[in-house]
């Protein structure tokens, strides 16, 4: 697979997002299947594995610790801090330095490794100056426990403040044909400072694969049930966009999912999508998306078809929108 630069690392142009193996989209695969899938991801050439303390409240990190640490020199390991389950069992955003440092120690133990290559602040805790949180992570770099810093779901302004405190190697944001907010400012800000834009949910949480016809059939604990775009009011209108999208995929000679990944890779050299899946066939399909080149004409048609004007509904509900710092259309 072609390579792209992520801070001090060279990684596969398409990474592997591990969240769905333990978190977010209803029941994931059983442990043995998940272990096989993670090793298949490495075999397919994915050299960036992305997890977080939040995913399964530690279960995802523990899964990686069991599944792939015998192949530690084959991949760049990314994890995240700043969201965790507190003492009362509730999800909490907390960017205090002492909390971030403890979270890192817990992650290292679960991951069974001495160092995390790329460590993100999963959300900026707006009660704590970004400089304080980043300063704590810089201390972990000095201690040899992490190698590079990243931020997730931040604005260009917050990114520049953080980068002035310590170099930021990556910003992870939702980015796909139907989520274009990074194009407002963060995509260029990353390029200006030499950071990668790591695109999570590059397949629009399954929408751009064409496989999700009825969100009402999703598991009760699937996070998409709380997202306005997947509501019964908005999803039927969004679904109509896929007829022409499927035609474009046929013209490009690829699957709908591969088309979404190829579009992202064409946006700029510092964009690195991290699709996730619990399905071996989908994993292989996604890995081949890096080899697809789209003509300027097809890229223009895609931009005209799926964009902020044509997609119905916000990407998050009102409560979640308050938690993030990204620019909005």
TrEMBL record:
Name the UniProt record assigns to this protein: Aldo/keto reductase
Organism whose genome encodes this protein: Marinobacterium rhizophilum
Entries under Gene3D superfamilies matching the protein: NADP-dependent oxidoreductase domain
Superkingdom in the source lineage: Bacteria
Swiss-Prot/TrEMBL keywords: Oxidoreductase
Domain NADP-dependent oxidoreductase positions: 13-306
């Amino acid at each position: 697979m072609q390579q792209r630069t992520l801070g001090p690392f060279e990684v596969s142009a398409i990474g592997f997002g591990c969240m769905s193996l333990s978190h977010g989209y209803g029941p994931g695969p059983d442990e043995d299947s998940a272990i096989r899938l993670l090793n298949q991801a490495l075999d397919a050439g994915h050299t960036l594995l992305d997890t977080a303390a939040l995913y399964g409240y530690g279960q995802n990190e523990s899964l990686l610790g069991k599944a792939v640490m015998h192949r530690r020199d084959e991949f760049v390991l990314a994890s995240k801090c700043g969201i965790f389950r507190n003492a009362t069992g509730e999800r909490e955003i907390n960017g205090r330095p002492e909390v971030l440092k403890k979270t890192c120690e817990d992650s290292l133990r679960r991951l069974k490794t001495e160092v995390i290559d790329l460590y993100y602040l999963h959300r900026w805790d707006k009660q704590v100056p970004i400089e304080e949180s980043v300063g704590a992570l810089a201390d972990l770099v000095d201690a040899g426990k992490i190698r590079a810093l990243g931020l997730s779901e931040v604005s260009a302004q917050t990114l520049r403040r953080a980068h002035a405190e310590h170099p930021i190697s990556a910003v992870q944001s939702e980015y796909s044909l139907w989520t274009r907010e990074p194009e407002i400012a963060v995509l260029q800000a990353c390029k200006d400072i030499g950071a990668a834009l790591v695109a999570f949910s590059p397949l629009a949480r399954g929408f751009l694969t064409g496989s999700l016809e009825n969100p009402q059939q999703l598991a009760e604990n699937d996070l998409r049930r709380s997202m306005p775009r997947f509501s019964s009011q908005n999803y039927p209108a969004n679904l109509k966009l896929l007829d022409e999208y499927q035609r474009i995929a046929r013209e490009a000679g690829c699957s709908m999912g591969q088309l979404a990944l190829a579009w992202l890779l064409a946006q700029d050299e510092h964009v690195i999508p991290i699709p996730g899946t619990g399905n071996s066939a989908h994993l292989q399909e996604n890995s081949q998306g890096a080899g697809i080149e789209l003509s300027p004409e097809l890229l223009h048609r895609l931009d005209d078809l799926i964009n902020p004007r044509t997609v119905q509904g916000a990407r998050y509900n009102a409560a979640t929108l308050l938690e993030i710092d990204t620019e909005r259309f």
